Structures are given as structure tokens and as C-alpha cells.
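Schema walk-through. Below, the input block comes first and the output block second. Nothing else is stored per chain. Lengths vary across the set, and this one has 147 residues.
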Amino acid sequence: MGTGNGKALCGTSPPSPPMIHSGRGVPGLKEYLLSQATPGRWTLEAGMSTDRSAEDLALEIVREKIFQRFYDELPYELTVVPVSCKSLRDGSMRVEHIIVVPHEGVKKIVVGSHGAALKHVGTSARMELQRMWGHKVHLILTVKVGK
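--- output ---
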């Protein structure tokens, strides 16, 4: 294994890395990837965009927004726990999560001054969920100190 050029693994050398900004090399990369792909059944049925539940998607979006807001500082010290995810009579969704942190100091950071940090996470997650689902979302985030 490991000639460094991929030939031993794939039977053919991969193209040079594509230049992201100029687009040079992208057609070669596409051709290479298609040559290495094997035909198979589709993972999802026609018309389906994902096989994940609304609750799973909401959880991932909230976690993503926490990572984006706090970068490398905190996300590894906290856990997002789903509480509920349900459709309401008016067609909107109510999603509730608890963000569990290890101690009070981390809670203060996640909540932020006058709730600003938590509001930022909640607003950006809610907006993405509304865009993704196409209807209003009521997102409730609570921060608790846990073990």
C-alpha cells in the first residue's frame, strides 16, 4: 500500500488536485471519480432527500450552529439532548432541545451576556430549519448543567 499517488489502491492515478477558485482540474477529477464508481441501487427512494427523521435533522442543525458559534472552544464539552419534535395544528413545528454542559462556567459562555449567545444559536438554527422544512418552527433551547 502507500505509493503516495493512489495507483496501488485504485489501479489508476488520481488527477492533480483541482484548483478550487479557477475550476482547473475539476473535469479531470469528475472523470476520475466516475471511473472508480461502481453501479448499485439508490440508497433513497425517488423524491426523498434524506432518510433521517425531522428530530434527527433538527438535532444536527442545532449542533452545527453551536459549532459555528463557539468554534473549537466548547462543543466537545456539551451534549444536545432532544426533548420533543412535533407538528402543531397550524402547520408549524415545535422543536425542543436541552443543551447539557459540564459546569456553570460553560453554561455562562453558552448563554452569553443577557442570553445573546444562545439567542444567536437558536435564531440561526430556527431560520435554517424553516428554510429546510418550508414552514414556521418554534425552537426552544434550554441550557442545563449536567454530569
